[in-house]
Specification:
alpha/beta, binds adenosine-5'-diphosphate, Rossmann fold
Length: 475
């Protein structure tokens, strides 16, 4: 069989640039797919954002890409390198260098940057005569590529290419891009499936055109078909339910490994769990909480955003204050939520620490030292923190939603509660504390957590079979 050619279009990818979960996926998945099947030809194309520094890589300049859209001429400059057997190309050009940030608050600037990027990336493949079997777009930034393929906006070169749109964050659709799409000659789509407001917006247009829609967990794939989570597109997703697939993300097992982590005080593994308690005492000491290996130490590592339910945890901590526990919250973001956490610390200085910052090294010490990690998310497409915490033998206490529901098994690898409600969360924490008090039961949960397979390989196997299914279906 001829090798499958896959074009990945993304706005960010580790290690070059990472803002959120999409950066993890676009950085890791192409390499995991290639490691799984050496027959795959994978080409990842990224915008050459001004913040990307490629000086330590060996790069190759490719011929400039000249194209016109709606009678306006554009020029892009590709630069490529190879990493983990994956070809990665960075696209430069005026609309990209005009933006200081990866994502700005000015939608017109972002829409111009990403629409230019999508056309340039696709024309680059065309110029090279490299015809993808599968085009894999991610989030609103690159969603319009599936529309370009479906509506033949770049001609017959793409007529056999099958398309996937992966949704990592449905809340951002690219609304406001309309004038920019028109500038590039992309008109509103005609469809009874989309609501009126979505017919000239990149994410709904891309989802409508895509052969398959992927979400980053099976539960979230179902949830987006409901009014609560669908952001107004739930009727559309219901109509396309046969084409929606949920595949849970992985984590980098080398990067997140308590037996080799140089940033924690004492390295440990499932065979040598005792050292985990040294990390706990070291963490208590570091943040200035009473040093006590027996008190249940809860923690949360998070963006401070409504989505994450930090306010629910603050409320639950108030309900539990007469009981024995300690709580460390590491996070930054919304100033109101930050303030609530600091107020909780002032009210209960012997129990609570609010560390208002983004600190990757400290997060490792927290994952290693905590007994329990809380994730009371209002919605959670996949979630990474629960997988990291399980790998570090810290048991998740989470709302049963999205990827949290798919990766945590109640009573076996964590504790789940149903409603975004502080009373339910407090009750769930109590349940976890009761198990914590029984040492052998707790150890069993820790060992089960640490044995879970969160490798990217597991996700790559599912993506590969999705590609194969698409190609079997043909066009
Ligand atoms: P999201 O991508 O929605 O923010 P995830 O759980 O998928 O949530 O991933 C969050 C990642 O960011 C985790 O790796 C977590 O450890 C990290 N993180 C979040 N906040 C902080 C922080 N304040 N300091 C260090 N790491 C953080």
């Amino acid at each position: 069989m001829a090798p499958i050619k896959v074009l990945f279009l993304a706005s960010e990818a580790e290690p070059f640039i990472k803002i959120g979960g999409l950066g993890d996926v676009a950085g890791s998945l192409p390499i995991a797919l290639r490691a799984l099947d050496a027959q795959l030809e994978i080409h990842l194309v990224l915008p050459h954002h001004t913040r990307i520094d490629l000086s330590s890589y060996s790069t190759q300049s490719e011929p400039p890409v000249k194209f016109s859209a709606n009678n306006v001429k554009y020029v892009a400059q590709p630069l490529s390198l190879v990493s983990g057997d994956v070809k990665i190309t960075f696209i430069s050009g005026e609309p990209i260098s005009a933006c200081e940030k990866v994502y700005s608050t000015d939608i017109l600037k972002d829409a111009d940057k990403f629409t230019f990027f999508v056309f340039a990336a696709m024309y680059h493949c065309q110029n090279q005569g490299w015809r993808p079997d599968v085009l894999f777009a991610n989030d609103w930034h690159t969603a319009i590529s599936t529309h370009i393929v479906k509506h033949n906006l770049m001609g017959s070169f793409w007529s056999k290419t099958r398309t996937i749109l992966a949704i990592h964050n449905l809340a951002y659709m690219g609304a406001g891009s309309e004038p920019v799409l028109s500038k590039y000659g992309i008109e509103p789509v005609e469809s009874d499936l989309l609501p009126w407001w979505g017919k000239h917006v990149p994410l709904p247009m891309g989802a409508l055109a895509a052969d398959k829609i992927v979400t980053v967990s099976p539960t979230y794939a179902k949830e987006i078909q409901s009014e609560e989570f669908g952001c107004g597109l739930d009727p559309f997703f219901q109509a396309r339910s046969n084409d929606i697939v949920g595949i849970v993300n992985g984590i980098d097992l080398q990067m997140w490994d308590p037996s080799t982590d140089q940033h924690i005080l004492a390295r440990f593994s499932a065979n040598e769990l005792k050292a985990k308690s040294d990390n706990k005492v070291a963490l208590q000491q570091l943040v200035g909480l009473p040093e006590d290996p027996s008190v249940p130490l809860l923690a949360m590592v998070t963006r401070m955003d409504q989505q994450k339910g930090v306010d629910l945890l603050v409320h639950a901590a108030n309900l539990l204050v007469d009981e024995q526990f300690q709580l460390i919250i590491l996070g930054t973001g919304n100033p109101e939520i930050e303030k609530e956490c600091l107020q909780l610390q002032s009210a209960f200085p012997q129990k609570v620490r609010a560390l208002i910052k983004f600190d990757s090294i400290l997060s490792r010490k927290v994952y290693a030292g905590a007994d329990m990690i809380t994730m009371p998310s209002r919605y959670e497409p996949c979630g990474i923190a629960q997988m990291i915490s399980m790998r570090y033998g810290s048991i998740p206490i989470a709302r049963s939603t999205g990827g949290l529901k798919d990766t945590i098994h109640e009573g076996e690898t964590g504790f789940l509660f149903e409603k975004a409600d502080p009373i339910q969360l407090a009750e769930c924490i109590r349940k976890a504390k009761r198990t914590f008090a029984k040492r052998s039961a707790w150890n069993k949960i820790q060992l089960t957590c640490m044995a879970e397979d969160f490798s990217w390989n597991r996700s790559a196997v599912q993506y590969l079979s999705l590609f194969q299914e698409l190609l079997r279906e043909g066009k």
